[in-house]
Give the backbone structure.
Amino acid sequence: MKNSDISSLQPAIVWSHFANLCLIPRASKHEAKLRDSLQQWALARGLEARLDTAGNLIIRKPASAGCEHWPGVVLQAHLDMVCQKNADSEHDFSRDPIHPALRDGWLVAEKTTLGADNGVGVALILAAFEDKSLVHGPLEALLTVDEEAGMGGARGLEAGVLQGRLMLNLDTEEWGEFYLGCAGGLDVNVERSAIAEPLPDGYQAFRIDLRGLRGGHSGVDIHEERGNAIKLLVRVLNDLAAELPLRLIALQGGSARNALPREAFVMLGLPGSAAGRLPIVLASLETMLKAELRGIDDGLELEVSSADAGQVMAQAEQEIWLHSLHASPHGVRRMSRQVPGVVETSNNLGMVNVHPSGGSCNFMVRSLIGSGSLALADEIASLWRLSGSRVEKEGFYPGWAPNPDSALLKVCQSVYQRDFAAESKVQVIHAGLECGLIGDKYPGMDIVSFGPTIRGAHAPGERVEVASVGNCWRLLRGILAELSLA
């Protein structure tokens, strides 16, 4: 599907903006080209548009005639996207446009992420600012940067720059649900240095790739117990090391802290006399892992090939990395007692990069309770400090505490029931939204989040249901027209 064809979808006023977003690369920390383009777009339409000190774009639109006394509303989304691609894709996220395809009512990027998270939210906001028929009070758009790599834009948002007291965040992924709370969290970063050793005489180098996993969002999908390529490959290595005298050369996996690792690879050395057993042992391990992940990650594959290398990691360092990664937690730690069915605390081992002279790894910890994320982060840090590793905990951000008495929520629910003849759901999401940070800077702001149905965010094959985007547009228009009641 050509990007120009996206704007032929309905509502065209929304899809035309999403088509434009697909054309402009917008990796985290590299949103300037898109942001500056949108600022010029706003100024050309007579709208106020400015950047704050964190690089966020704020656009203002005066109220419709007669609605000047209505409460001010902030529409919020983030400009950046997670950039993930399949190993066989040559896509360059620094220059290439996204090429979506229409499949059975879904818009999908088949070999890369689509950027529906949070491009659809941005497109909805731009449509609201463009639509001259829309009835609304004073509007502000808060389009943040660097959300996916640490919420840098929301974290650095200037206090006092926003005028509205109501906020609609358009960054959730299940149509028909209003979100009223989210997890907070922090990162744990581990580093080690070492002295490389030469590849022992008589050793040959091999590469093992683990691929074919589904991946996904480390908050939204963590409860599904999908495979983590890093954890699985480390398990394979520990099993191999119990049978074969292997030496570790390199281990890499994952490419985003907030994405479940889909692929990982290792380079190792084996004496020539043991090389023949490697494919046999790997085939047995692949069969075992496929049986364990049946119905969850049926595409898992282990592939071995020859490699070239002149150095290996020292044996003591190898032991530290393989045992510490194996012992490190990943997945759901605790389910919420207050919100049934919602994950309270979890951790994602998202990235690792190990080589003969050292390496690093990242853990992203989330929790609905601040003390819960800090406790799990301390546990991970304690494990790695036993081996003298350098550990840094950073980027703590607060969760978004639910307000069941929200006046904005009541308006949202009323419009939904009226326009769609159905009852909406109220949810708390385990993923991190910017609402917590923004609410912390603007105490008393009434916030609700909603969005279209998105599947596979943060992984290649990400898709958005076209009909749900139209529903979101209809809902947004309806809410804005009713907010005189809030």
Notes: DSSP finds 13 helices and 25 strands in the chain. The chain has a mean pLDDT of 95. The two ends are 42 Å apart (CA to CA). The chain has two domains: 3-182+399-485, 186-397.
